[in-house]
């Protein structure tokens, strides 16, 4: 998946939650939590491969936050894109609700 696909699916998740609950911020939190968790899990696997000798037990609690396992800009974009897009939609929907 690329940045556009991540943002699209995050907005889809947010829309489903927003339409059913009328809470667009909850939809944003759910979608962003999914994509952020996914990228953190991938960072953990990169840390284990690079520094943990292939064993999860060797990884410290901060392993996924180690800057050495985030070498590419697209790894940041994969979770920043959904955050920006869903927060933007939540703000638009909040303004729309105030105008009604």
What does this structure look like?
- This protein has 100 residues and is an all-alpha fold.
- The protein has one domain.
- It is 74% helix and 0% strand.
- It has helices at 3-21, 24-51, 73-99.
- Helix 1 (3-21) runs parallel beside helix 3 (73-99).
- The protein is elongated.
Structural class: mainly alpha
Judging from the principal axes of the Cα atoms, what is the shape? Answer: elongated
Ends apart, CA distance between termini = 37 Å
Number of helices: 3
Give me the strand/helix succession: HHH
Largest sheet, in brief, is: none
Number of domains: 1
Number of strands: 0
Strand content: under 5%
Mean pLDDT: 94
Radius of gyration: 16 Å
Keywords: Membrane, Transmembrane, Transmembrane helix
Transmembrane segments: 6-36
Protein name: Transmembrane protein
Task: Give a short overview.
The chain is mostly helical. Helix content is about 75%, strand content about 0%.
Structure characteristics:
3 helices; mainly alpha; Transmembrane protein; elongated; 100 residues; membrane; transmembrane helix; single chain
Sequence-ordered SSE layout with sheet pairings:
Elements: H1 3-21, H2 24-51, H3 73-99
Helix pairs in contact: 1-2, 1-3, 2-3
């Amino acid at each position: 998946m690329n940045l556009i696909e991540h943002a699209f699916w995050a907005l889809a998740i947010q829309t489903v939650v927003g339409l059913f609950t009328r809470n667009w911020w909850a939809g944003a939190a759910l979608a962003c939590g999914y994509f952020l968790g996914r990228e953190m899990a991938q960072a953990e696997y990169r840390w284990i491969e690079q520094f943990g000798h292939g064993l999860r037990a060797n990884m410290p609690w901060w392993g996924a936050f180690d800057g050495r396992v985030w070498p590419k800009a697209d790894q940041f974009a994969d979770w920043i894109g959904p955050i920006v897009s869903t927060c933007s939609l939540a703000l638009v929907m909040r303004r729309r609700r105030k105008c009604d």
